[in-house]
Amino acid sequence: MNVRDNEIKDLLTRYQKISVYGLSSDAQKPSHYVPAYIRSQGWDIQGTYPKVHNENGFKIYKTLAEVPAEYRKFVDVFRSSDKIPELVDEILDLGGTEVLWLQLGISHPEAEARAEQAGLKVVSNRCLIIEHKRHFT
């Protein structure tokens, strides 16, 4: 993680459009209720999920490549840690991502280092709800 604690508020202020990688249709899962909370706080959220859905009004794409570029600047990830290297490959191949945010419990130091070397801001093992409440409420 190359983002210091005192930089998180700035990231959340600067990026108002977020792509959620792994946005579930199951409202009981963090990969659904975290994006729903963030959207309720004013952010514009679009997501990816292997099974396209529009649960709770989210616009969902099957692949990250289909997500409009302005949403791919900030990618919030709900995937297991072992999937992060292939996601970093995909993000670097597509280009345009500036922030890679790995949710609470998700970390892969080698893949994070590759993303950082490519110029991305990387936040790992942090929850957007927790960080929003800490910095904005």
UniProtKB/TrEMBL annotation:
InterPro entries attached to this UniProt entry: CoA-bd, NAD(P)-bd_dom_sf
Listed Gene3D superfamilies: NAD(P)-binding Rossmann-like Domain
Domain CoA-binding, chain residue ranges per copy: 11-106
Pfam families recorded: CoA_binding_2
Protein name: CoA-binding protein
